[in-house]
Amino acid sequence: MQVRPLTWLTLSFFGYYCAYGVFLPLFPAWLKTQSYSEESIGLLLACGYIFRFSGSILFSGLIKRVSLLVNGLRYLAVASAVTMALIGLISHNFWLLFIGLALYSMVNAAGMPIGDSLASTWQQQIHLDYGKVRLIGSFAFVVGVMVFGYLAGIIGEQYITWMITGILIFYSIVQLLHPNPMPQDEPQSAVENSIGFLGLLKNKTTLRLFIAIALIQGSHAAYYSYSTIFWTSHGHSVSDAGLFWGISVLVEIVVFFFSTRLFKNWSITVLFYLTGIAAIVRWLAFGYADTFVEIVLLQCFHSLTYVAGHYATVRYITTQPQNHIAKLQGLYNALAGCAAIAIFTALSGVLYPISPVYAFSLMAAFAFIGLFITPRGVKAFLPHRV
């Protein structure tokens, strides 16, 4: 069955991010039901980020032509479903679970940059609106965390891995649809793309932008790991915590929807300054916000601390040579979404038991450094429709 690229990407993003919306906040709770200690859970999650980094680099590097992106996503979707099912079957043994989680993290993580690469390619070729497609992913994340979080509360948290497996099976099935038109290789990209990741980073603008966004997005590490614990320690329920997460993503959806209209005339440099300053304010205030209203207001900052920076980075990547896009997306996801998060999670884990304020203040410091590394005068405007 043939569908439009917009429809195909919408279904693909929905399946991927719905599963991720269950995995990110609820997988630690599933590990707890398997009688693993907090130390073991922390080790598994930290190592998971390292393997996500490896997977993003490895599989993105295997994509030599944009015409291979669709099939690449199909294989990764099936591999994600199979490995998550294995995790549910081998959870009784720590080392088998470790291996299963490593495999899942690698194949699942690669779906994010390759999906964004496909969106960026269609943005170049058919003027697909990336912001409107990506908001479907944000909406799916809300569905995952709220709907399946509620379901887990009814039938039991021990079934979380099977919920994720079911969503990933749906994700695999919708990938079998045929988008028309398919992404087309440019003449120079039809030959094997020989440039490596280090070669891409020899571009000083790319290097500085990627370091800056890694620092700014990596500063979310303490939030991802300890926000629910922090809120519940201040008297809020777990359902309140789920609501706070949901609010941040709902605001994210709104900004993604209007991102092209809002930011199309903003330079990349200015967008990086915006996201960096917002991150500094958010993390400095986070450790002191304990009332419902204060928390909700800070959660609305997610539209700036994440969305603005992500939009800017994807837009920059979209303006690069077509045969560089897949590797640039993989590099971006590996550095900002995996490596920086893994390192900063470990650092915040040392400071949080001493004082949550120290942990979140350290995150603000990383965002502050990111501001100074951001190169000046980077515009990277998208070409207008003709």
Automatic annotation (TrEMBL):
Residues 7-360 form the Major facilitator superfamily associated domain. It is a multi-pass membrane protein. One of its GO terms (cellular component) is plasma membrane. It is found in: Cell inner membrane. It comes from the Bacteria. InterPro entries: HcaT-like, MFS_assoc_dom, MFS_trans_sf. Keywords: Cell inner membrane, Cell membrane, Membrane, Transmembrane, Transmembrane helix, Transport. Signal peptide: none annotated. This is 3-phenylpropionic transporter. GO terms for molecular function: lactose binding; lactose:proton symporter activity. The chain crosses the membrane at residues 6-31, 43-63, 75-104, 133-153, 159-177, 209-231, 243-263, 270-289, 295-318, 330-351, 357-375. The keyword Membrane applies. Its main location: membrane. Pfam families: MFS_1_like (PF12832). The gene is hcaT.
